[in-house]
Amino acid sequence: MKKLLINMFLVLSSVMPLLSFSEANPTNFSETCEDGSGETGSSFGIGFGLVLDFGLYRNSCPEAESIVYSWVETAVSQDPRMAASLLRLHFHDCFVNGCDASVLLDDTEGLVGEKTAPPNLNSLRGFEVIDSIKSDLESVCPETVSCADILAMAARDSVVVSGGPSWEVEVGRKDSRTASKQAATTGLPSPNSTVPTLISNFQKLGLSQTDMVALSGGHTLGKARCTSFTARLLPLQTGEPANHGDNLDFLESLQQLCSTVDRSVAITQLDLVTPSTFDNQYYVNLLSGEGLLPSDQALAVQDPGTRAIVETYAADQSVFFEDFKTAMVKMGGITGGSNSEIRRNCRMIN
Ligand code: HEM
Ligand SMILES: *[C@@H]1O[C@H](CO)[C@@H](O)[C@H](O)[C@H]1NC(C)=O
Ligand SMILES: *[C@@H]1O[C@H](CO)[C@@H](O)[C@H](O)[C@H]1NC(C)=O
């Protein structure tokens, strides 16, 4: 029912561009008529009513979408994992004080960035691709396209070039003049999280249980280090009865990987079957006990509610794609801190 309401709203909002809302509870709509500019469109702001728009750059920078797309396409053709890394950057941006490009800031005198927070350290990739996009955009339409919007468009394009669905990205985000290593440390979910923890972590940002399971499907792309899935190997090491619906052959292959190479550098695919294709294989893997992160496998075994969603997505890719698109638009609408400028260089405030 809740999902139906959200879908109805998304349909409504695309035909009624003057309707906007910003509520902590995404099902509690307040209809506000905006007058004047005609620049505002539908918004899915969850924090303080940042108004996002579908067509903002159509006039101010018509080349924006194609510039982003072609850089992403090139980067992913050279390194298929780059799609994963760019998708994850947008997630790590939005979960920390909203989608404000705080994740891109380097440490400078007077500013501690988020790149050294434990969930990000030696793990985030793709900053150079964002730099290239930004520098191209600054020469074509200076100080027009925010770094936070570049992240949102690059995340969508990464999914598309990997074979996943496309959707219209709302734009109009502003970039922050601050970052929070503390918020990045506590706000990003740990791979050891239980299902209730994951649900509440996402709920705080206005994302439902269904959104959480659908967004976890981002793990159909990319890689993780042994340090991220140590807890999956515990049943082998302690001899304790396997839980998590464990697939012992799979766990043994992981243990072998992580013991033959330096554990801190060993990495493996989050989706062992189709690692560079955006598809529903991740959910199929969870049902056979081949989820890589503890938090992935937990979705299929810890909670009947998330299990049912996993089964649905494993059986029907089109349901996964629809829910993923919806959830990405919601995640991309999270707002938080004070985002106030369009950076000229995504790594530093103006
Ligand atoms: C549900 C909670 C989530 C947890 C606990 C989680 C945790 C992780 C961890 C631990 C890694 C591996 C990092 C490493 O070992 O270096 C990872 C990688 C990744 N995550 Fe998540 N994640 C979650 C949700 C998401 C979401 C919502 C997305 C995007 C929609 C996402 C996209 C990715 C991608 C694409 C990678 C691979 C990145 C690469 O290869 O560069 N994750 N995640
Ligand atoms: C909707 O939000 C308004 C304002 O925040 C609040 O007063 C009202 O009780 C909410 N209604 C529902 C059904 O949650
Ligand atoms: C997850 O749990 C394992 C085993 O208890 C631990 O070694 C590891 O450091 C934890 N990882 C994180 C990211 O908390």
TrEMBL record:
Where Ca(2+) 2 is bound, by residue?
A: T220, D271, T274, D279
Instruction: List the biased-composition ranges (Polar residues).
Output: 179-191
Its EC top class is oxidoreductase
Q: Which compartment or compartments is the protein found in?
A: Secreted; Vacuole
Q: What is its main location?
A: secreted
- Keyword Disulfide bond on entry: yes
| Reactions catalysed, as given in the entry | 2 a phenolic donor + H2O2 = 2 a phenolic radical donor + 2 H2O
**Cellular component GO terms held in the UniProt record:** extracellular region; vacuole
Which terms does the record give in the GO molecular function aspect?
heme binding; lactoperoxidase activity; metal ion binding
Spans annotated as Disordered: 171-191
Q: Where is this site: Transition state stabilizer?
A: R88
Residues of the active site: H92 (proton acceptor)
State where substrate binds.
P189
Which intervals hold domain Plant heme peroxidase family profile? 51-350
Q: What is its EC number?
A: 1.11.1.7
Q: Which cofactor does it need?
A: Ca(2+); heme b
Cofactor binding notes: Binds 2 calcium ions per subunit. Binds 1 heme b (iron(II)-protoporphyrin IX) group per subunit.
Alphabetical list of Pfam families matching this protein: peroxidase
Q: Which segment of the chain is annotated as a signal peptide? A: 1-24
What name goes with this protein? Peroxidase
Protein species of origin = Capsella rubella
Specify the taxonomic lineage.
Answer: Eukaryota, Viridiplantae, Streptophyta, Embryophyta, Tracheophyta
